[in-house]
Recover the amino acids of this structure.
C-alpha cells in the first residue's frame, strides 16, 4: 500500500500536475494540502475518472485539505474536534484498517507573532486529538505539510534555519516531538537515519525565489508519520522531486510511504 502527501499549492492551478502524477505513481491514498478551493469547485469528478474517490474540506483562495483513495472512506472527521477554527486545515478518514489524518499545519509567519502563537495552540489541539485517534485507531498514519523541519538534517543551512527561525524554532520542534512521543515515527527517517552530505540532502519544499530548487536550498517539512502498530510494516519512504521540475510547479514535492499489506 502506497500512501502519499502533497501540498499542491492551488488545485485549480495544479490539477493537471496531480492527474499526471497520479497516473504515473498510482498511490492508493493521497493527502492533499492547500487545495484553495470551495467545496463546490473541488474536482471530484475529474479525479474519479482516474479511479480516486475524494473527501475534502476547502475554502476560497486559502488552506483546504483532501484525501483521495482507491477505496471508500469511512468515519470522516473534518477539523480538529473541540477546536474552533475557520481555517480548513485538518481532515481524517478510515480506509480499510488504516486511519489517515491529513494536516496542513499553520505556517506561523514569524517567531513571537500572533500567528506563531496560533500555530502552537493549533499543534497542542492536534496532540490532544491524536491521543484519542491512536486509542481508537492503532493503525494510524498522520501526514501532511507540517511547516516544521524536524532537525538540522532537514534544512539546507542550519545557521540560517536555527532555533529562533520560523519552521525550525525550538517551540515548533518540541511540539512536533511531542506528537511523535505519542507513538508516531517519521517514516522517512526509519529508512534514512544517517546524516547525508550536503549534495545528497533531500527536501520537500523549496522557495520559488533565488533559484532555490535548482540549488537545492530547501527544507523537509512534508512528513508521513506512522504509528507503533505500523512501524514494522513500513517498507520504504521517500520524496518525489520530479513534479517540482514541471512547468508552474507547486513549491512542494510529494512525499510517500509504502506499507506491507
Amino acid at each position: 500500500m502506497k500512501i502519499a502527501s502533497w501540498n499542491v499549492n492551488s488545485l485549480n492551478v495544479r490539477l493537471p500536475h496531480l492527474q499526471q502524477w497520479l497516473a504515473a505513481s498510482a498511490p492508493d491514498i493521497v493527502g492533499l494540502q492547500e487545495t484553495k478551493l470551495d467545496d463546490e469547485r473541488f474536482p471530484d469528478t475529474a479525479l474519479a475518472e482516474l479511479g480516486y474517490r475524494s473527501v475534502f474540506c476547502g475554502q476560497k483562495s486559502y488552506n483546504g485539505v483532501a484525501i483521495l483513495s482507491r477505496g471508500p472512506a469511512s468515519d470522516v472527521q473534518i477539523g480538529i474536534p473541540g477546536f474552533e477554527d475557520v481555517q480548513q486545515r485538518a481532515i481524517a478518514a478510515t480506509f480499510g484498517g488504516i486511519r489517515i489524518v491529513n494536516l496542513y499545519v499553520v505556517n506561523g509567519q514569524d517567531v513571537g507573532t500572533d500567528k506563531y502563537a496560533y500555530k502552537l495552540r493549533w499543534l497542542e489541539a492536534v496532540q490532544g486529538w491524536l491521543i484519542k485517534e491512536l486509542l481508537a485507531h492503532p493503525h494510524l498514519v498522520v501526514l501532511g505539510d507540517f511547516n516544521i523541519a524536524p532537525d538540522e538534517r532537514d534544512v539546507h543551512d542550519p545557521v540560517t534555519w536555527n532555533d529562533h527561525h520560523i519552521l525550525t524554532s525550538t517551540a515548533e520542534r518540541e511540539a512536533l516531538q511531542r506528537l511523535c512521543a505519542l507513538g508516531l515515527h517519521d517514516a522517512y527517517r526509519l529508512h534514512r537515519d544517517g546524516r547525508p552530505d550536503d549534495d545528497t540532502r533531500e527536501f520537500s519544499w523549496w522557495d520559488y525565489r533565488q533559484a532555490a530548487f535548482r540549488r537545492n536550498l530547501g527544507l523537509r517539512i512534508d512528513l508521513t508519520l506512522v504509528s507503533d502498530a505500523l512501524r514494522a510494516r513500513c517498507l520504504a519512504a521517500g520524496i518525489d522531486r520530479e513534479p517540482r521540475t514541471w512547468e508552474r510547479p507547486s513549491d512542494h514535492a510529494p512525499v510517500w510511504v509504502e506499507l506491507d499489506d
